[in-house]
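user: Here is a favour to ask of a fellow structure person. I have my own habits and do not want them to colour yours. Could you put it straight underneath, so I can go through it closely?

assistant:
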Amino acid sequence: MAQSEAESLSCDTFVYGSTPGGVAAAVEAARRGERVVLACPKTHTGGMTASGLCTTDAVRRHLFGGFVQEVIGAIQAFYLRELGADHPEWELCRDGWFYEPSVAEAAFRDILERQDGLEWLRGHWLTEARVEDGLVRSVMLDGPQGKVIEVQARTFIDASYEGDLAARAGVPYRVAREGRDEFGESLAGIHYMNWRTGEEIETAQSGEPSIAIQAYCARGIVTDDSEHRVPIEKPDTYDQHLQDYLPLLHDFETGRVTKLSRILPTRRMPRGRFEVNGNIEELTSVNCPGVSWAWPDAERHMRAELERFHIDHAAGLWWFMQHEAHVPDDLASNARRFGLHDREFTDNGHWPWQIYVRQARRIEGRAVITQHHFTPDPKTGRTPSVEHPIALGEHSFDVHPCHDRRWTVDGFMEGVLWYPRKAEGPAQPGRIPYGAMLPQHIDNLLVPVALSCTHIAMSVLRMEPVWMTTGQVAGLAAATAREQGVSVARIDPAGLPRKLGILTEAPG
C-alpha cells in the first residue's frame, strides 16, 4: 500500500509501546480527558510483566503508588477470588506482587479495554516519525494485512523498551556502556566483580567504555504438573546452540555445578507454575550474552530472528539437560520433571511472546541520570536533589553478564553487577528528574522508558514499577500540556507526582 493510501487518525496523545509504562501513560492520559491512541508491535499487552517476568522488581514496595498499586491490586483481587487467603498457595503471590504471566496480562488488558477515549492498535510497527520545527507532527504505522496508518497528535509518548519512536524522530541516544571517566562513575565501563564479597576485580581494561550490553533471555514458564505439562521439544537449531551448552559437561566434572537450579533457576508461582530466569551468577544459563548487542538498532525482521534465537537457546538448554547422555543422572531426572505450561503463551508454542530486553537505547535528554543519583552523600546519608523530581528509582545496581563465559576473571563474568542483599547495596533510592524524559530538541515528545541515563543508572531504572510510574507521569503531563495550551516541555511538572500519589522522596 502506498503512503498516499494510508488511513489517517488524529488524537491528543499518541503512545507507542504496550509495555507497563505505555499502558500507564495511555490510561492516565485518557482518564484526564485526552483522546489517546496506543499502538504496539505486539498483539499482547503488559510487556515483560505479562511475558515471564513474574516477580515484580521492587525492593521497597512501600515507595510505589499510583498505577503500580492499581495493577498489583487487580492481581491480588484475582488470587483472592481464585484461591482465597487461606489457600496453601496464597503466599506465593506475595499480595499480588508475584503472578502468572496470563494473570498479569489479563489485568492490563482489562484496564485498557474498560478505558473510554482510548483506541488500542495491536500488531502495529512504527516505521516513520515526521518532525517539523522541534515538534513531532505524525507517525506512520504498518499494521496487519499491509494496513498503513498515519497518526497525528499533539503529544507523543515513546514507551517502547527500545526507544523506537524517539530514534525515528532523530533523537540522539546511547546504547553502549560509558567509561568511568565520562561521568565519574566508579562502576562504569568494562567491569568484573566478585559478587560473593562485593569487591571489584581490577584488570587492564577495567573502566573502559564498551559496546557490550547486558544479556537478554526468554523467561519461560514451566510446570511439573503432568496434567498441564507440555514436553519441551528439541529446536531445529539445536546444533547451532550446542557449543554454548557443552562447557557445562566440564562444570559437572569439576563440581562447579551440582544442582539444576544453578543453570535453570526456577521460582514457584501460584497454580503449579515456575518462572525461569537467566542466572546472573552462572556461566551458562538461559541468558544469551553477546546476542543482545544488535537488538536496540535492529529492524523488525532482525528482531524476530533474535527473539527466535533466545527462545531456541532456552529450549535447547532444557533439552540438553533432559536428554544429553553425559549430564549427571540426578540433574537430568530433575530436569525431566518439567515441561512448558499448557495455559501460558498459548498462541506462541507456550514460549514467551516478548523476550526480556533488559536495556536498549537511552535517549540524550535535558537531564542525565547517573550512578551518582543513587549514591548517598556520606555526610548526609541522602541521595542528591534534582530539578523537578517525578519519581524514585529504588532498585540495586543490577546487571547481567555483558560477555559470555569466555570473558571471565577468577570465574566471574564481565559486566555483572550483583548485590544479593539488594536493600543494603551501594544503590539507594534516588530521584528521577522530569528532564530525563524530555529529548533535548523536541518539545512534544516524552520518553518514560528509554530514559536519559547512563548504563549504570539504567541498571536501577530498568524495573517495571519504575517505568509504570514514569509512564503515568508522562500521561498526566500530556493532559496538563493540553489544558495549558503548551507543549510537555513547557509545563511546570512540580505538582504531577503528588496528584498521582507518587513519592519523590523516601520516607524517613
